[in-house]
Amino acid sequence: MTTHQLSRRQFLATALASTVTIGSALSAQERAGEGANNRINLGVIGIGMMGRGHLQGFLGNRSVQVVAVCDVHRIRREDAVERVHRAYAQERKAGTYRGCAAYVDFRELLGRRDIDAVVIATPDHWHAIPAILACRARKDVYCEKPLSLTIAESRAMVQATRDNNIVFQTGSQQRTEFGGNFRRAVEYVRSGRIGRVRTIRVGVGGPAVRCDLPNQDTPDGVDWEMWNGPSPARAYSDVLCPRNIHTHFPAFRNYKEYAGGGLADMGAHHFDIAQWALDMDQSGPTEIHPPERGDTGLRFVYANGVEMFHGGPSGCTFEGTEGTIYVDRGALRSTPGTILQQPLGDRDFRLPDVGTNHRQNWLDCIRTRRRPVADVEIGARSAQVCQLGNIGYWLRRALRWDPQREEFIDNAEANRLRARENRTPWDRI
Fold first, then answer.
1. Rounded to an integer, what distance in angstroms lies between the CA atom of residue 3 and that of residue 10?
2. Total tally of structural domains belonging to the chain
3. pTM reported for the whole predicted model
4. What is the pLDDT of residues 134-161, one digit of tens each?
5. Which candidate among 161, 306, 345, 381 keeps its CA 20 to 30 Å from the CA of 13?
6. Closest CA to 22 of 96, 146, 100, 108
7. Range of the domain at 301
8. Which CATH number fits the domain that encloses residue 122?
């Protein structure tokens, strides 16, 4: 059975199970923000660390109007509403504003026909279902990385995006921001400045593990059943869902029920840059070779012979026949140093100019209906590298992968791990 079949049987129909009637289809002009004041009406789903950062960024953008927020945590939800009201009150002579609605259930937000686009900044296990429902509601989508929890989910997200002509940006901000270091590294690698690429080393955290946290009583104001959602039932833990307004990234990222471990958390950023530099945005590796033990050292092999290792210094190290380039946030250097000192010429590879703000690139594309710099297919493929790595660590055996059919070759056990069964009521087919 192919991943596409798995998607429809085990995931896509989940979206159809929603009990909320989604608003009727909008025209491209309506979705491009031709509403009051010509602003794009925006809803934000998930108000944790990333969601709060996105909210503040959009509140400072006059082309956007935040009209709704959603979170299962009352304190964070109310704080978000107050942030919106305070920001927009400053624009009005009366000095007051009360136009932002708050929801616990994202389906109610998606049911509003006046919302043009949504930002999804939930934990990873809650990326796919809201994103697909948003696509079916004809809302353009900005979804945080890693794009999905499973391979089947990400393919379903791509399909829903294409079926509904959605502008879908994955939150892979390294493609636009951080001083342009990652873009410059990609341009130099693809221009052949280090010769033929032989190896890439990506230094990120380890694979996801099963959640074994102790049970705690659910605090007042937290809809824990909704937070857990499609994942297996378990009691509340403040490690997974902090109690108040938190200033750290919660450790749900470590556990396979909710995320892909450190391998997928920063891996979705750095493997994304590796894929970009190899011109593999529409493909991926063909072999996965895990170590016998330990949580680093897994080796990916591409059809062209390039090997990519999980392990090494933070960021990406590209090793070629004529030199190396190392790039990370705040770092870009080469060996020999003269590689980066020589400017690129007219005949070298250059990336298109998409600006230096990831959110703005998405908004610009909403108006033009072009695909953004981290389109859903790109996000799916980058997440897939992380998912393949996790499966390799979990099974501890060499695997062969067909990136076009998106299935393991002659390995039924590995193929079953491309998807998972969601918990009732998110498992309906």
1. 10
2. 2
3. 0.93
4. 999 999 999 999 999 999 999 999 999 9
5. 381
6. 108
7. 179-207+262-346+383-416
8. 3.40.50.720
